[in-house]
Amino acid sequence: MLGSAVAVVLLRNPVNSAMCLVLSFLALAGLYITLDAFFIGIIQVLVYAGAVMVLFLFIIMLLDLKAEARRRLNLAASAGGIAVIGGFALLLVQVVKSLPSAAHPFPALNPDAPSDVVGVGTTLFSHFNLPLQIIGVLLLVSTVGVVVLSRRTLR
Amino acid sequence: MLTLGNYLIVSGLLFAIGLGGVLLRRNILVIFMGLELMLNAANLSLVAFARHGATAVGLPDYNAQVLVFFIITVAAAEVAVGLAIIVALYRQRQTAHVEDLNQLKF
Questions:
Q1: Which residues of B touch A88 (CB under 8 A)?
Q2: What's the CA gap between A151 and B17, in Å, rounded?
Q3: Is residue A95 part of a domain?
Q4: B51 in contact with A, Cβ within 8 Å
Q5: What part of A 9-68 touches B (C-beta under 8 Å)?
Q6: Structural domain includes residue A146
Q7: Domain tally, chain A
Q8: Residue A5 exposed, middle or buried by CB count within 10 Å (0-12, 13-18, 19+)
């Protein structure tokens, strides 16, 4: 998964990047399933690997992007970027190593428990009912916004 | 046996790779893909913590999974709006290269 994520960043052609992103999302869904989060894994495949990536590929087709021409890199800026990323990764490894509970294996799950769709659905519709409705309104607003944005002439 | 630390390190590396995509790449669509990678890294650590914080009756912490569900929804809305903005920008400027978009630069 990390390999295909690196390929997303390094490949020059946006179509290849998008394909590697699909691979990365599918592998991430596999990781969710190893964490016993079956519902989230399926949603990941449906929403990310399905809808979002179709949108990305559609836009790449619409814009008719060619492989990026080899421009002169701003060397100082690239070095700074790599330094920031390396520092972040090092710091992260330090923090995770110093976390006492990070080395413990996961607690066992109840094998007779109802499927996690039941659990997520119950939590969603009982404790998080208002946020769910706000999310619905957000989706409506973003749909309207996209329609307004993609009109031929913006006023 | 995989532990919480393994998943957290994978999630952090995924975040770092996404951040690298945002910082190093110049194509606006690839920058957007880097943003998606970072959102997914946050989701992965949330799901790992949900599994880690399993309750006494042996159920994962469903609050975190509901939060992941919300994040995925917001990310989908964000992708739709962002791509619409990119298309509008491309119609105006005929470029998807961020260094050509310097109108607001002082």
A1: 12, 15-16, 19
A2: 35
A3: no
A4: yes
A5: 9, 14, 17-18, 21, 24-25, 28, 31-32, 34-37, 39-40, 43-44, 47-48, 51-52, 55-56, 59-60, 62-63, 65, 68
A6: yes
A7: 2
A8: buried
| Structural domain span for residue A54 | 1-67
How high does pLDDT run on average in chain A? 83
Which of helix, strand or coil describes residue A105?
strand
The reported pLDDT for the residue numbered A153 is 65
Which tokens belong to A136? Answer: 């619905």
Chain A residues with CB-CB distance to B70 below 8 A: 128, 131, 135
The two most distant CA atoms of chain B are separated, in Å, by 60
Alpha-carbon distances, residue A119 vs A126, B3, B61, B70, B92 (angstroms): 11, 23, 9, 15, 48
d(C-alpha A130, C-alpha B54), whole Å:
25
Here the ipTM equals 0.87
Q: What is the CATH number of the domain that holds B78?
A: 1.10.287.3510
- As a whole number, mean pLDDT of residues B88-95 equals 82
**Residue A94: both structure tokens together:** 């330090």
Residues 6+ apart with CB under 8 A from B7: A31, A35, B44, B45, B48
In chain B, % helix, strand, coil (3-state, to 5) comes to 75, 5, 20
